[in-house]
Amino acid sequence: MSNSIETLSVLLTRILAKNLSGWETMEMLAGAVSQSDSVFSEFTETLDGVLGDTNAPAAIRHQVLLLCISYMCGVAQLSTGAYFLRRDFFPSIVSVVKTPDTEQYTFEAVLFLAILANYHKSDAAKLNPYLKKIRETTDGDFMRKLCWASNFTLSTAIQAYQNVQDDRVTATLTTSFGAVVNRLRPDRALSFSTPTSSREEYKDLPPEITVVLLPVQEFLRPNPLFASILMEDLTLEEENSLQGTPLLCTIITLSSYLFVHASSTASTRSIAYANLALNIVLTLVENNMVMEFITQTNIPAIHLCRQRLPVLPPPRRPVQPPICAILDCCVLWLRHNLNKRLEVQAYVNCVWICGRVIWFLQHRRLRLDYYWKELWNSIFGLLNFLASRVGVLHTTGGVELLATETIRLLDYALCFSESYLPTPQSLHEFIYELVRSASVLKKQSELLQTLAGPHSGRNKIEIESKLERLLKVTSFFEDKIGTTLGNAKDAMKKVADEIEANGLQLDEGRSEESPPSHSQDVMDFGRIACGDVVAVLP
Prior knowledge:
mainly alpha; 2 strands; about 65% helix; membrane
């Protein structure tokens, strides 16, 4: 049987590489379009039968799994892929993951599931049975295996960046990642040529194995149990944890590298992975259960990318809540991706992440010990970029939304600053940074007028009101500071004296309503996912 599977795999790979249409594929593989139903139904039934047969040799099941993946990646979104939706492969995939002889193939199995779930995802969300299976499964053991395989693989992806430039303070990553990594093609997993320039250094990154982020996202959004399992490692006593770095921390670390290098090579692939990571982070912070853990559980500080200037300041404490690292990741995105080809929606997602974090902190009255000044400066940098470069951006689509959401974030951060900032000094720093950026804030009125469309309407009035409040507070403290603005120490003292004497004296109209949920399915990642899956498998 092994030879037959190998022969069929080679045949399918050659045929599907020709970029045939759906009906041409049917004629080539079934002999005629009229026979396609019976041939493809028997084909999928046979594959599913072997894949789910726990008595079959592990090597044979692995070959069949690779054949299934090659086929689905090869047909992409062609109609012949629909036969894999008619047949329920989910039990067989779970069997591969949970059977001791085949659990080493978890990486491939969960990728197969993710590819199936992404088949015609945009127009078949309610029809694709795998989306329903992912949403409704309560198999915790299966999801833990998914987390295990993802963690090892994503750790290897991080190592690929560090092979180019080791930015770790100490070498803390494990040097062996087990069969999950050893089985992958070595030339696609860890081999990178010696860099000759900054652009060359990262042009092949992230490595293709990073595609395992896709099944993580597919489970994280719709399945509440998966989010709980993701949090399990954070709650384990350190002496009882044998799993090493929790998957959540690995995802955050990798995200920092993706965000820092997203725009450095002008690669649509690196941008796509950064967007996927942003969606994962947005999904995390919009989950209240997750937020309870990551805002109040202290863990060793998470390593973040330090490969481009300006680097982040070192963590305030050796142990801190993971939410600090998430905010740091937002700072990295905001800093390192300002260019003419502005990834507007990615920036909007980043602003939404910051807004959701601040809302949760003030809602739960949690004061976060964090380098807030880094975040404020990054946000003002974004607003300044928009105001000064809007005329030369390659696209202005969505820029109005980005500008309004950023102003909304700043207004909310100011209105509730006394609820989440850790000390009076951090509040004084915030006001001081507002005053220092007064010219940037004043430019926003003109920017909003320039970007306003015929449907801005009520939202325009609301945002103008928020901007007016920001400008009013800024102007008030600007007058108080006077000529001492250039002297930070004296200016901060005047801000502190005024706030301690009279408070912020903000206008009414603040809203504590929960912000709407913005996380959504990633619809356009399937093509890149299929290419990377094919590249990394043997």
